[in-house]
Amino acid sequence: MLSYRHSFHAGNHADVVKHIVQSLILDSLTQKDKPFVYHDTHSGVGRYDLTHEWSEKTGEYKQGIARIWEQTDLPEEITSYLNAITELNDGEELRYYPGSPRVGRAHLRRQDRMVLTELHPADHPLLEQEFHRDRQVSIYKEDGFARLKASLPPKERRGLVLIDPPYELAKEYYDVVNAIGQSHKRWATGIYAIWYPVVNRCDIDDMIKGLKKLDIRNILQIELGVSADTNERGMTASGMIVINPPWKLESQMNTILPFLKEAIAPATGHFKVEWIVPE
To answer: Can you tell me which residues form the catalytic site (predicted)?
Structure first.
């Protein structure tokens, strides 16, 4: 299925958490001069116009990045994330929101590179257009998991893989576990960040059980919820599962998540930072 279009959801609370974690990991990789690769398995279009009718139809960004944008007392830890957004906007007005490829590109130095994969027939041309003639960016129109398998291990031996499928089908949770199992065998020292939505908590529990069976160490879970779990339709929370996280990430998110909770969902929000498997 290729019905999912992220334009309806860009800049929502899930994007905020995902891209903050992504930015912090990439920040850590820039602390050394050695080159790194950023690999994105489900890239989308790169940037999103928050004034587009699709974005206005759902208004999800109004309960996400718009809540952060209006804050004056911001944690220092989210500076690079906010810089990636500022790069796309003139002045103080928030119109464009960066997808994960744009967040990734904002962190690349001359020696680094980025691999993007997008299979959707409408989104892929827009992604190509976004990074037209950018020699540090390789773009593929193929299955994201297949491209990941073919790309590992990278020549740089350092980097981040972001895995964030739309989870339109229940099997995609299994696909993620399978991809991690195969990828870790090829590149055990890489950083892997898995985004997940909490629509049905059982799906997340099953995915975590699957990851535990892989016998991989050093797995951190980061989650922000805007309401309690429910059996009704809709995403109540989202999170990132990070394999081989930078050593500062746990403490950084323990600082950031309370701020996000108060800014986005002060009455009903909740968060956690927990080790699924310790180092």
So the answer is: 164
